[in-house]
């Protein structure tokens, strides 16, 4: 075939230089990871011990059960269906199981590819480009990256031992500040370990209704409570202004990429349509196996969680004890009530945290520096470390604290 | 805790009504499916035969092999890693295998959750809100829904027997039209079955460089050629202006949700950052099993494809033969060279296609009406049917055509 060539009479034989592609404004707004997630900060030692991420221990995940599940599903003739298309909403049986556990209508459950996916769907569905989102200070840094999808501005709200300072937020709103959303981790906060109190949950939901914003309750650790008192989720599920983001990542394994949203009824269709246009649906194969385990083995999930909670309780207590023994007087430490994180504060304000991290890295321990989590002024996060203990053995935790002690010199 | 209440002196005891949440402009632009994908159009008969979707046959998918793969990976100690986090770029071994097959640098391969995911990533990364995207006329309707993510306007370009009318597009561009992207299905076009000729591929890529737009080459069926001559992909891979969208959906199963993009080097980082913010990464579990099959069984993928092509060739030929035998003179039919679709044209222009579809539905055959694929004027698609034969047995195809014959009366 021939093309209609634009005539260029003065230089008929010259091909013009290619016109480069320009990424969209959305894409241009996505930053290169700095601080949190920057691989160049890792210890160069091959035997380095990483207390870096909210990672479940392999021994707490259903390795053997998944193999059994596949065998059972295949033997029962379910192989073919597990490799075909399925609905964007997610498996009915899986949604039903989750809905019964959460105490909500199954229609309100939307299956996702894990917690991060739930966050990005919620942000894209409810936050207008350039709007303001109130966030924890300090906050989970990867949520800030999610916000880049909509170029949101942030309003940092201090986090107290019992979670987000809701009264601070109320004052800002009363002063005229307007927000599209508030983001918080209500249970075993990342990174501050605390849990949002029941009173604050109620107050936050009331504010959301009064001012017309959505509460994005990011709750991946909520099943991993091993001490203290649960502060409840009913108030979230009863609100028209809360999206509850959850996942099997910390309980059955990050590698599955399987989570869910509990949406208020009025948002189900709009988030479902968005999800449909992204990647159609979550893996039928993965949903088949997980649904099989949850539905055909009553009590199995709770038994699995029970063992996991014991493991993480033990590791949290061990880490705290080691810090107190090997680094007496160096840190203010609060024993975690659940989740994967310890957020100790340096007692001596003259310690150079950057230099400490450098020495620790040379000694062979990796941790997240508190400054990576800061979203605004008025936090002591720069004086803290985030130590993740979920996937570290007793011996590793002891050795890691020993290395940290050497870093203090 | 107490909240700072705004004072309302005239009615201190009244709670104001909740302020409702407003979905984002993005979310509001997502339409409810009409025509294609509208479940209400399905035949009410329980024994209806669906020739509806581009669905691979279960017998062509690796049901037994996936079970074996899981056993082998588990026995070799790979279970734990398969349930953990992995990188956004995708497994190195999987990308390496694909890259070798495609003949490109592994860095240019980005693992996705299937073809639709690749399309939505590409559109969001490269199409500015409200920009113009040139699309096939007729086109795969679900791509139009993907375009809703960026509120794109469309420029329909006619599709000829050898694919997109590139000369038509060239004239529009020479006349001053400017586009951000062109979307086409180069191999076994959906719905028109044709393949974009090698000459047109070269011309399209040249236009893209000259005018600075991206070619979105959506190529899920390309491995399923059972007749005719391959028109090549090298010209796509050698261009800085093409994103090649591919998937294991039609070859190993839609339920896996596993695909890939071949990106020009300069777009890898930006699309990777976008993907990272959506849902972190594709399932480690699924990647582990598929990589194991592809890497540890040399030749296995091609053997699997060989069987699949034979099966689909047989079904395509059978469907064509049945139409010619049971409905002589009713349709102009072109034998497919690959893929899953037949796109027959009604010979008699006086046939009422809506009434025909209604009678066919009552007889118990479901197909896609040609009008669902129309994106602009100047196509005869309304006089056509899309018949999908991939997952229908010989007996079902014969019976379905018999029912269609009865619908003609």
Molecular structure report:
The structure is a homodimer of 409-residue chains. The model of chain A is unreliable at 1-9 (pLDDT under 50). Chain A has an eight-stranded mixed sheet with strand order 2-9-8-7-6-3-4-5, with helices on both faces. A four-stranded mixed sheet of chain A has the order 1-13-14-11. In chain A, strands 10-12 form a two-stranded antiparallel ribbon. The longest helix of chain A has 27 residues, at 300-326. Chain A is globular, with a radius of gyration of 24 Å. Chain A has helices at residues 25-28, 63-75, 79-82, 92-102, 115-126, 141-147, 166-174, 198-211, 234-237, 268-279, 284-296, 300-326, 353-363, 394-408, and strands spanning 49-51, 109-112, 132-137, 153-160, 163-164, 181-184, 214-218, 242-247, 259-262, 331-332, 341-342, 345-346, 365-369, 385-388. Chain A is 38% helix and 14% strand. In chain A, strand 6, helix 8 and strand 7 (214-218) form a beta-alpha-beta unit. Chain A contains 14 helices and 14 strands. Chain A folds into two domains: 39-61 and 302-408, Alpha-Beta Complex (Aspartate Aminotransferase, domain 1); 84-297, Type I PLP-dependent aspartate aminotransferase-like (Major domain) (Aspartate Aminotransferase, domain 2, 3-Layer(aba) Sandwich). Chain A is of the alpha/beta class. The interface between A and B is large, with 101 and 100 residues.
